[in-house]
Specification:
Rossmann fold
C-alpha cells in the first residue's frame, strides 16, 4: 500500500503558482479564497498595485507561472504592469481580471501582451479554467468565437481566407488605438473604403466586431503581436 501511494503521489502535478495585483483588499482576499478552494492553484504573492507586484516578484526566489492583474490601480496600472512584466520575465504569463469589458480595454491589453482577459463578475470556476488554459500556453478571452479560433489553430485546422493587401493592412490597424477615421487617413483612403474593408472581413470571418478582427489577426499569426503597436 505504501509503494502504491508513493507512486500515485509521484504523478500529482504541482500547483499553478500565481501572483495577484488588485488594489481593493476585500476583492483580492475573496478571489484568492475562491481560487484556493478550487485546488490546483496557489496564490503566493499578492499586491495592491503593479509596482508592488513587480517588487515582490523581484525579491521572490520562486517566480510565478501567471500574474493576475487588475487594470485600474494606483501607482502602476495594469497596462504598465504587463508591459514591464514582459520586459523583465518573458516566461511569466498574465491574466487580466477586471470590471472593464469594453473592446478598447481588451485591445489595449492584447497589445500589451496579456494572455487572457476575464470579468471579475465571472464564476470562480471560470478563473480556474482561464488560469489552467493559460498555463497550457493557450490564450483565454471572453469570447466563444476566439476560443474556437484558438482550438483550430492548435489543431492545425484553421483555414485562413484569402485577404487582399488592403484588408491585411486594415487588420493590423484594427489592433491599434486608432479610430476608423484615423485608419483611413493613415491608409490614405476614405472612410467609405475603410468601411468596405471592415465589412468584407466581417463576411469572410463571420464576425461582427473590431475586437474579434484584432484577436483573429493576432491569434492566427497574420499580424504579429509586436506589429500591433502603431508608432
Amino acid at each position: 500500500m505504501q509503494n502504491f501511494m508513493n507512486k500515485e503521489a509521484d504523478v500529482i502535478s504541482p500547483p499553478i503558482m500565481v501572483a495577484y495585483a488588485e488594489d481593493h483588499t476585500a476583492v483580492r482576499k475573496s478571489i484568492i479564497s475562491y481560487i484556493h478552494d478550487l485546488g490546483d492553484i496557489r496564490v503566493f504573492i499578492e499586491a495592491s498595485n503593479g509596482r508592488e507586484l513587480i517588487d515582490q516578484i523581484d525579491k521572490s526566489r520562486k517566480k510565478p507561472d501567471i500574474c493576475m492583474i487588475d487594470i485600474r490601480m494606483p501607482g502602476m496600472n495594469g497596462f504598465e504592469t504587463i508591459s514591464l512584466l514582459r520586459q523583465k520575465w518573458k516566461r511569466i504569463k498574465t491574466l487580466v481580471l477586471t470590471t472593464f469589458m469594453e473592446e478598447m480595454y481588451l485591445l489595449r491589453m492584447l497589445r500589451a501582451g496579456a494572455n487572457g482577459y476575464l470579468s471579475k463578475d465571472c464564476d470562480p470556476e471560470a478563473i480556474k479554467e482561464a488560469l489552467m488554459t493559460i498555463h497550457r500556453n493557450e490564450n483565454y478571452y471572453p469570447d466563444t468565437f476566439t476560443r474556437k479560433i484558438t482550438s483550430a489553430i492548435q489543431a492545425n485546422a484553421l483555414k485562413i481566407p484569402d485577404f487582399t493587401e488592403k484588408e491585411r493592412q486594415f487588420l493590423k490597424y484594427c489592433c491599434s488605438d486608432l479610430t476608423y477615421l484615423q485608419i483611413a487617413q493613415v491608409m490614405r483612403g476614405t472612410p467609405k473604403s475603410i468601411e468596405g474593408y471592415r465589412d468584407s472581413l466581417f463576411r469572410k470571418l463571420q464576425v461582427n466586431s473590431r475586437v474579434r478582427l484584432a484577436l483573429f489577426a493576432v491569434q492566427s499569426g497574420i499580424v504579429p503581436l509586436e506589429s500591433c503597436a502603431i508608432e
